[in-house]
Amino acid sequence: MAQAGADIVLAARSSAELEHAAAELRETGRAISTAALDLHEVAGIAAWFEGVVARIGAPNILVNAAGTTRRGPAEELSLADWDENITINLTAVFALCQAFARQAIRTGTPGKIVNIASLMTAAARRTNSAYTASKGGLGQLTKALAVDWADKGIHVNAIAPGYVATKLTEPLWTDPAFDSWVKKRTPLGRWATPEDIALPAVFLASPASDFITGQILYVDGGWLATF
């Protein structure tokens, strides 16, 4: 986003990690700000957003990229783990979208929302019931908000990544058996990179997508196209 010309407000729980990321992004020459936020505190998201607007200004792009997962057989999964998935992956996303839309509607300013969904928005794997429910809900939420806010000039879309090689997924792509399974299952024969997800996000945030809303873009190397 910064390389494409956007100024950025980064949000995450860790102020130290935010500042580290901001320092890297400032090399692009864009204005980079940080605003610490714990998405578990859903009731405080609206006030947090108003504080960001007062301090930095109103954003016209919102990317909901935070997420979590708690795995386990469905019959054994605790309600606490269920709630963790739903809170971070769905309820907090709704609260952020709502805060963004209220500001845009109040000022008559158009905007773009990009939610990060998942392959499990459309499919499921064992031991992932809570995550699958949260990401399935996120897909439908994306469509519902797009319909609600279309006449307000707010576009809402989602990117559903396939398996992406990141630090978070390192235990998976360094496991030879799992790595082999992903590559064989993916028609393009590899894991996604973060850039594979970032560039479609730029597209959905740009004027190039001005007649696209309510869509889920599966960036999965062809995963869902075959069996």
Characterization of the model:
Strand 3, helix 3 and strand 4 form a beta-alpha-beta unit. This protein has a four-stranded parallel beta sheet with strand order 3-4-5-6, sandwiched between helices. It contains seven helices and six strands; from the N terminus they run E-H-E-H-E-H-E-H-E-H-H-H-E. Helices cover 43% and strands 12% of the residues. With 227 residues, it is an alpha/beta fold. It has a domain at 37-163 and 202-225: NAD(P)-binding Rossmann-like Domain (Rossmann fold, 3-Layer(aba) Sandwich).
Question: What's this model, at a glance?
Answer:
The protein is α/β, with parallel strands linked by helices and 227 residues long. The protein is built from seven helices and six strands, in the order βαβαβαβαβαααβ.
Low-confidence stretches: none
CA(first)-CA(last) distance? 34 Å
CATH superfamily of one domain: NAD(P)-binding Rossmann-like Domain
Q: What is the number of E strands?
A: 6
Beta-strand content: 5-15%
What's the alpha carbon Rg, rounded to whole Å?
18 Å
Strand neighbour order, sheet with most strands: 3-4-5-6
Largest sheet: 4 strands, parallel
Amount of helix: 40-55%
CATH topology-level fold name of one domain: Rossmann fold
CATH class of one domain: Alpha Beta
Helix and strand composition category: alpha/beta
Shape: globular
Please name the CATH architecture of one domain: 3-Layer(aba) Sandwich
Mean pLDDT: 97
Number of helices: 7
Strand/helix succession? EHEHEHEHEHHHE
